[in-house]
Amino acid sequence: MQRISAKQTLVKTKKKSKNNEFILEKIAVIGGGSWATALVKILSENKSQVHWWMRNKNDVQHLVNYKHNPRYLSGVQFDLNYVKPNPDLQAVVAAADWVILAVPAAFVQEAIVGLPKDALEGKVIVSAIKGMIPDENILITEYVEQHFNVPNSHQLVIAGPCHAEEVALEKQSYLTIGSHDISTAERFCELLRNRYVKANPLDDLDGIEYCAVMKNIIALACGIARGLNYGDNFQAVLVSNAMFEIERFLDAIMPLHRSLSGSAYLGDLLVTAYSQFSRNRTFGNMIGRGYTVKSAQVEMNMVAEGYYAVKSIYELNKKLNVVMPITNAVYLILYEKISPGVEFEILKEKLK
C-alpha cells in the first residue's frame, strides 16, 4: 500500500501565531444527521473550527438562533465561536483543510454534485459514511477518487463501534481511523480524542470501509430475526456465521492479512447488530414483523444504509462467487419480496 511520510502529510500539527495563540484546525462537516451532529460536537468541544453544511436553510437558521440541531440530537448545545453553520456547500469546503462526508451513501452524489472537480484538491477527505454508492457499487473513497481526483492516500475512514446517541450522552466511545497513511490518521485521531472518546489509527482503509458496509447488512438480518421471534441463541449463531461471511468476502475483494477480532471489525458489527440505537437493526425488525420496505422507511424517517448496501454487495458478489447465505437472504427479502419467514427457514439450515 502507498504511504507518504510525516513530512508529506497534508495537514500540519497546530502552530502558534505571532500573538502566541493556537491556530484552529479548520474542518468541514457535510451533513445534518445524527452522526454529523455527533462529530461536530466532538470536534468543536476540542476547539477545532467546524464549518458545518446542512442542506436545509431553516435548520441552519435554527442552529444559529438556538445553538442546537432541531432534527437530530437536539439536546446537544453548540458553541458558535467554534461551529459555523452554513447552507453554502462550496463556501464550507473552501474554508476547511479537512472535509468530513457524513451524509447517507445514497445521497452523496446529490449532496456534492455542485462542487467543482478541483474543490477537494489539497484537502484530507474523511468518510464517516458506512455505505456504498448505489448502482455504481463502489465505496465512498472510490467515488471521491474517481470524481474529484483525490488519491486514497489522502483519504480517511471513520469506523466504530460508536453510536451518535451515545456520543451525545458522552458515554465512553471508541473510534478507529482507517488510512493508507498512519501519520495523517494519527493527526485526525488527535482532533477526536477527549475524556469520553478514544481514537486509534489503523492501516486498512479498504478493509475497514468494506466491513462497515457489511456489518449494516448483518444488522438487518439480526433485526429480521428478532422481528420473526428468533431468540438470542439464534442471533449469536447468526453473528458468528456473519464474521466468517465478512472474512470470505474481504479475502476475495481486498485480500490482506488482517484480524477481524478488532474493534473496527467485530466491535462495530456487534454494536450495530445488538444496539437499541441501530437503525439497520430497527429497520430489519420492522421487516421481520411484516412491514413493507416502503412503510418501514416512511415510519423510521431515517436512512438504513444496509438497505442500499445489500444490493451493491449482492451485485459485486456475482463476479466473486463468495458463499454469502446471510447477505443473499437479506437481498431476497428486501428486493425480491421473498417472505422473511420462508427465507429464514432456509437460512437457518445453512448456519453452523
TrEMBL record:
<keyword id="KW-0963">Cytoplasm</keyword>
<feature type="binding site">
    <location>
        <position position="268"/>
    </location>
    <ligand>
        <name>sn-glycerol 3-phosphate</name>
    </ligand>
</feature>
<feature type="binding site">
    <location>
        <position position="160"/>
    </location>
    <ligand>
        <name>sn-glycerol 3-phosphate</name>
    </ligand>
</feature>
<feature type="binding site">
    <location>
        <position position="305"/>
    </location>
    <ligand>
        <name>NADPH</name>
    </ligand>
</feature>
<feature type="domain" description="Glycerol-3-phosphate dehydrogenase NAD-dependent N-terminal">
    <location>
        <begin position="26"/>
        <end position="184"/>
    </location>
</feature>
<comment type="pathway">
    <text>Membrane lipid metabolism; glycerophospholipid metabolism.</text>
</comment>
<dbReference type="GO" id="GO:0006650">
    <property type="term" value="P:glycerophospholipid metabolic process"/>
</dbReference>
<keyword id="KW-0547">Nucleotide-binding</keyword>
<keyword id="KW-0444">Lipid biosynthesis</keyword>
<dbReference type="GO" id="GO:0051287">
    <property type="term" value="F:NAD binding"/>
</dbReference>
<feature type="binding site">
    <location>
        <position position="303"/>
    </location>
    <ligand>
        <name>NADPH</name>
    </ligand>
</feature>
<dbReference type="InterPro" id="IPR008927">
    <property type="entry name" value="6-PGluconate_DH-like_C_sf"/>
</dbReference>
<feature type="binding site">
    <location>
        <position position="130"/>
    </location>
    <ligand>
        <name>sn-glycerol 3-phosphate</name>
    </ligand>
</feature>
<protein>
    <recommendedName>
        <fullName>Glycerol-3-phosphate dehydrogenase [NAD(P)+]</fullName>
        <ecNumber>1.1.1.94</ecNumber>
    </recommendedName>
</protein>
<feature type="binding site">
    <location>
        <position position="107"/>
    </location>
    <ligand>
        <name>NAD(+)</name>
    </ligand>
</feature>
<dbReference type="InterPro" id="IPR006109">
    <property type="entry name" value="G3P_DH_NAD-dep_C"/>
</dbReference>
<dbReference type="InterPro" id="IPR011128">
    <property type="entry name" value="G3P_DH_NAD-dep_N"/>
</dbReference>
<dbReference type="GO" id="GO:0141152">
    <property type="term" value="F:glycerol-3-phosphate dehydrogenase (NAD+) activity"/>
</dbReference>
<feature type="binding site">
    <location>
        <position position="279"/>
    </location>
    <ligand>
        <name>sn-glycerol 3-phosphate</name>
    </ligand>
</feature>
<feature type="binding site">
    <location>
        <position position="279"/>
    </location>
    <ligand>
        <name>NAD(+)</name>
    </ligand>
</feature>
<feature type="binding site">
    <location>
        <position position="215"/>
    </location>
    <ligand>
        <name>sn-glycerol 3-phosphate</name>
    </ligand>
</feature>
<feature type="binding site">
    <location>
        <position position="55"/>
    </location>
    <ligand>
        <name>NADPH</name>
    </ligand>
</feature>
<dbReference type="GO" id="GO:0005975">
    <property type="term" value="P:carbohydrate metabolic process"/>
</dbReference>
<dbReference type="InterPro" id="IPR036291">
    <property type="entry name" value="NAD(P)-bd_dom_sf"/>
</dbReference>
<dbReference type="GO" id="GO:0046168">
    <property type="term" value="P:glycerol-3-phosphate catabolic process"/>
</dbReference>
<feature type="binding site">
    <location>
        <position position="279"/>
    </location>
    <ligand>
        <name>NADPH</name>
    </ligand>
</feature>
<dbReference type="InterPro" id="IPR006168">
    <property type="entry name" value="G3P_DH_NAD-dep"/>
</dbReference>
<dbReference type="Pfam" id="PF01210">
    <property type="entry name" value="NAD_Gly3P_dh_N"/>
</dbReference>
<dbReference type="GO" id="GO:0005829">
    <property type="term" value="C:cytosol"/>
</dbReference>
<keyword id="KW-0443">Lipid metabolism</keyword>
<feature type="binding site">
    <location>
        <position position="34"/>
    </location>
    <ligand>
        <name>NADPH</name>
    </ligand>
</feature>
<keyword id="KW-0521">NADP</keyword>
<dbReference type="InterPro" id="IPR013328">
    <property type="entry name" value="6PGD_dom2"/>
</dbReference>
<feature type="binding site">
    <location>
        <position position="130"/>
    </location>
    <ligand>
        <name>substrate</name>
    </ligand>
</feature>
<feature type="binding site">
    <location>
        <position position="130"/>
    </location>
    <ligand>
        <name>NADPH</name>
    </ligand>
</feature>
<dbReference type="GO" id="GO:0141153">
    <property type="term" value="F:glycerol-3-phosphate dehydrogenase (NADP+) activity"/>
</dbReference>
<comment type="similarity">
    <text>Belongs to the NAD-dependent glycerol-3-phosphate dehydrogenase family.</text>
</comment>
<feature type="binding site">
    <location>
        <begin position="279"/>
        <end position="280"/>
    </location>
    <ligand>
        <name>substrate</name>
    </ligand>
</feature>
<dbReference type="GO" id="GO:0046167">
    <property type="term" value="P:glycerol-3-phosphate biosynthetic process"/>
</dbReference>
<dbReference type="GO" id="GO:0008654">
    <property type="term" value="P:phospholipid biosynthetic process"/>
</dbReference>
<feature type="binding site">
    <location>
        <position position="278"/>
    </location>
    <ligand>
        <name>sn-glycerol 3-phosphate</name>
    </ligand>
</feature>
<feature type="binding site">
    <location>
        <position position="280"/>
    </location>
    <ligand>
        <name>sn-glycerol 3-phosphate</name>
    </ligand>
</feature>
